[in-house]
């Protein structure tokens, strides 16, 4: 049997007999011929079958035939004089037409039938872009001396806040799904200095919003021997630039220096721009994040903006305070097109500082004993960040709901498929 | 402040004043000088400090000093005329000496203190090799047109057997941790044709052995448009060759053609070699896997051996039978140095075949409804495999226990750190 050719490679085989294989994307019957558009992983190719009939859409077929140039065929080439064989049973029709330029179905219908809906070239494209982005992230960090790690997703105590965690029965013991690899990546700075992890994190998020998922893919990094959070931001800039470079068609430009505004100055700016006065609030409202993003685009020509120095009150206990203004922190968010894309900062690295930080918050150090121990054994100043892959992809492509950037989303109401 | 130099780069700075930073790996006090060996992510470097004293082992320091060639120094270079600053508190002593050539501690002590034990250069090295292996796996499959995916780890029904699953309370519903991405990767063949995933899988493994973990990292791949399982084996060979090539120091050679023996012939061979008669058994005993591996090395010079055609009785219901001998399957295991490293095979791809396969086993199709639906909508012949990363690393490095190739293992008795 002649070996298979992808439809995107048909132009290189004009005048040859080839074998292609894929799904019947579209079947158009004219009086004396049927045009069968075959979809494979490389794209779409047309087969001209004499007579009418032929297998229904989504049936998997293989076709041997002659590659023929035809300016009127999609792409300029088609397969003629075909012999068609079925590789699957004749397919049952999907609940929507996959051959239309865009999928005409509601988001719940798409998600309920994800394995079929994702076959639509536009939906599929979202996830080849996500895959390329992750490759760009890894490549950037590999180039900066980072080591990739895999850490436990089943943990004995809640990672950060103790709320929104999923409980597990672990051989009769109570355990939890990890909300982040935070404590592990910090401990591993003591081993590798620079680590990253690409993996699932779990939030029992009780709110049903367009931006929250019960499981998402977190791109986590942590590095030691930093001066402060600005060294972390420099690495993050490289990581995001690597992600954007891996998706050149997106046209996203990551500035060499991403503009930066301190939280206090951001609040002043919001007051000036909006007439509202957010001062005294310990965090930014989503509307204010959009306002700041617009401002950065207008005045700096940048779709990215670092907001630094969030108040300690709203950051986790392991956050390093700003030594000059201890009510503010050495932390940052990275806004991208109006939305928080990344959270990060410098962490505490001295054991005594952890004990104090927990005491100030009225928390017991006991649940964190395993975590804290490593800081008594020599940890360098360090920091890191976490970036949600689905959020990145959704923003990059202008998808309004993060579920559209998730193959099989999990949320308050969705546990299948 | 002068920028930091890694200790491995000291030879390039002889005669210059540099800054290095890292952990006090070893402190050796002589009469009038103290040798401080600094460990950073690149290796070890010696600093010569006048007088005695200095910070204890594992304290994080930075040192500015003059790079001086000294044939008697480790590596031939050292830092003299130093000024030493502390980046951490003076470290509490770890429960073992990290500066010894090998770590003198029992496995439980190592695992209880993993964040510290992993600082030992030999233990750390295991995980840089694991990271390189994963990079090699991805690179090989990227080159073959595969797309990387992320799939749900929380599922509504048990993936394969219904046993050994961890239960979760999912917003008041009963859910499970995924034992494998099996069903998702198959469905995604319908989208991308060729997919892989690197991610955690979960087994509530009730046995306490040297080769089982409750969470491990599965390297999963699945591809469509195969003739049979041999096309899957060809891709697997490339993936494993990519992993071995990423760790050249291992010296592992993956033959262009990995030798292959059918299960039935393997049983005959075992009978001949061992005097035992395993015929009638539906699987291979670990001792017999070792016997076959030894045989492959002796007669084919290969540390790898494919055993194909396992009896259908011992393979999951989605396994494709051998059309010529339907009691056997189009499946395989890949043995590496005496141990099963990979399991894979061709899967059923027709809806009707799934319904029949489940009926034959007396199982209801209802729990698999979401999974089966996709096969009614056109799926090509396909197959795939799963490779346990920790098992690979352990075998590659001759580590007797898979926990030694896991940063923070999870098992029947271990939920922390």
TrEMBL record, chains A, B:
It comes from Amycolatopsis coloradensis. It holds the Pfam family tRNA-synt_2. GO terms for molecular function: aspartate-tRNA ligase activity; aspartate-tRNA(Asn) ligase activity; ATP binding; RNA binding. This is Aspartate--tRNA(Asp/Asn) ligase. Belongs to the class-II aminoacyl-tRNA synthetase family. Type 2 subfamily. Residues 137-417 form the Aminoacyl-transfer RNA synthetases class-II family profile domain. The keyword Nucleotide-binding applies. ATP binds at residues 203-205, 211-213, 340, 388-391.
């Amino acid at each position: 049997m002649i070996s298979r050719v992808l439809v995107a490679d048909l132009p290189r085989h004009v005048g040859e007999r080839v074998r292609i294989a894929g799904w019947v994307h579209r079947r158009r019957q004219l009086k004396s011929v049927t045009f069968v558009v075959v979809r494979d992983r490389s794209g779409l190719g047309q087969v001209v079958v004499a007579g009418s009939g032929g297998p229904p859409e989504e049936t998997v077929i293989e076709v041997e035939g002659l590659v023929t140039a035809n300016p009127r065929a999609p792409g300029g080439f088609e397969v003629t004089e075909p012999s068609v064989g079925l590789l699957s049973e004749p397919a049952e029709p999907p609940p929507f037409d996959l051959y239309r330029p865009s999928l005409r179905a509601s988001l719940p219908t798409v998600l309920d039938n994800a394995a079929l809906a994702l076959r639509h070239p536009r939906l599929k494209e979202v996830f080849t872009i996500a895959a390329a982005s992750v490759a760009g992230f890894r490549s950037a960090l590999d180039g900066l001396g980072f080591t990739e790690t895999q850490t436990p997703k089943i943990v004995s105590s809640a990672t950060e806040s103790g709320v929104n965690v999923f409980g597990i029965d672990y051989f009769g013991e109570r355990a939890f799904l990890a909300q982040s690899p935070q404590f592990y990546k910090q401990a591993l700075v003591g081993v590798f200095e620079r680590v990253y992890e690409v993996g699932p994190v779990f939030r029992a998020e009780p709110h049903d919003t367009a931006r929250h998922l019960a499981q998402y893919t977190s791109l986590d990094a942590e590095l030691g021997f930093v001066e402060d959070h600005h060294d972390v931001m420099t690495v993050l800039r490289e990581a995001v630039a690597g992600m954007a470079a891996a998706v050149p068609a997106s046209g996203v430009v990551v500035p060499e220096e991403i503009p930066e505004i301190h939280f206090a100055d951001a609040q002043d700016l919001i007051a000036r721009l909006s007439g509202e006065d957010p001062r005294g609030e310990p965090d930014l409202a989503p509307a204010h994040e959009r306002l700041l993003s617009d401002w950065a685009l207008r005045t700096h020509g940048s779709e990215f903006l670092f907001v630094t120095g969030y108040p300690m009150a709203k950051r986790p206990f392991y956050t390093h305070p700003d030594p000059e203004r201890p009510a503010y922190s050495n932390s940052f968010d990275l806004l991208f097109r109006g939305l928080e894309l990344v959270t990060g900062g410098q962490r505490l690295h001295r054991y005594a500082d952890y004990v104090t930080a927990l005491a100030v918050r009225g928390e017991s150090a006991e649940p964190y004993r395993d975590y804290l121990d490593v800081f008594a054994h020599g940890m360098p100043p360090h920091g890191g960040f976490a970036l949600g892959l689905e959020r990145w992809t959704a923003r990059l492509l202008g998808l309004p709901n993060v579920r559209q950037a998730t193959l099989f989303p999990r949320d308050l109401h969705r546990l299948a498929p």
